[in-house]
Specification:
About 35% of the residues lie in helices and about 20% in strands. By secondary structure, the protein is α/β, with parallel strands linked by helices. Strands 3-4-5 form a 3-stranded parallel beta sheet. Strands 1-2 form a two-stranded antiparallel sheet. Helix 1 (about 5-25) packs parallel to helix 4 (about 140-150). The chain is globular. The N and C termini lie far apart (about 35 Å).
Length: about 150
C-alpha cells in the first residue's frame, strides 16, 4: 500500500473508525499486519483516546500475511463471542488485497466490511471478489472517510 500512497490514508481512516467506535462505546480490537506478521495492537475492549503509537510502526511491503491476520482477528472475535454472546461481531478489513492467497471468509465474523485501497488505473479488483465471496460490505475508502468525518460528535 505504501508504493501507491495508501498507507497514510489507511492509518487516518483507521483513526476515524476507532474514534467512531469510541463515540458509540463499542468494543473493538486492532490487529495490524505487514510483511513482518500480524500483531494485536489493541486488545478487545472499549477504545480510549486514539494513540498514534498503535499504527505508527505499521510498514508495508515484504509480503502481506493476510491469512495470519485473519486467523488472529477470527480468534479475537470467537473469544469475544464467548465472553459477550449478545454483542455483534463485526470485522473491518482495510486492505488493497494485493496478495496471492484467496482467503476464506472468517467464520467468527457476523458482518464484514472491507475497505478497498486498490484503486486507480492499475487496480486488480481482488477485494471486490472477496466482498462477493464473503457476502461482505464493500466500501470505497473516500466515501467511507467522508461519512465518518460528517458523523455528529457526541
Amino acid at each position: 500500500m505504501r508504493s501507491a500512497g495508501h498507507l497514510e490514508p489507511a492509518k487516518g481512516l483507521l483513526a476515524a473508525l476507532m474514534q467512531a467506535a469510541a463515540r458509540r462505546r463499542g468494543r473493538v480490537a486492532l490487529v495490524c499486519f505487514s510483511g513482518t506478521g500480524a500483531q494485536v495492537r489493541v486488545r478487545p475492549g472499549r477504545p480510549g483516546a486514539w494513540r498514534e503509537a498503535w499504527v505508527a510502526p505499521i510498514e508495508s511491503g515484504g509480503g502481506t500475511p493476510i491469512l495470519e491476520a485473519l486467523r488472529c482477528a477470527s480468534g479475537l472475535l470467537a473469544g469475544h463471542a464467548r465472553r459477550h454472546p449478545g454483542d455483534a461481531r463485526c470485522l473491518w478489513l482495510l486492505t488493497d488485497a494485493r496478495v496471492r492467497e484467496r482467503p476464506a471468509r472468517p467464520a467468527a465474523a457476523e458482518r464484514i466490511h472491507l475497505i478497498d485501497f486498490d484503486e486507480g488505473p492499475r487496480a486488480i479488483g481482488r477485494a471486490r471478489a472477496w466482498v462477493q465471496d464473503w457476502r461482505a460490505g464493500g466500501h470505497a475508502r473516500h466515501a467511507l472517510a467522508s461519512e465518518l468525518l460528517a458523523a455528529p460528535r457526541r
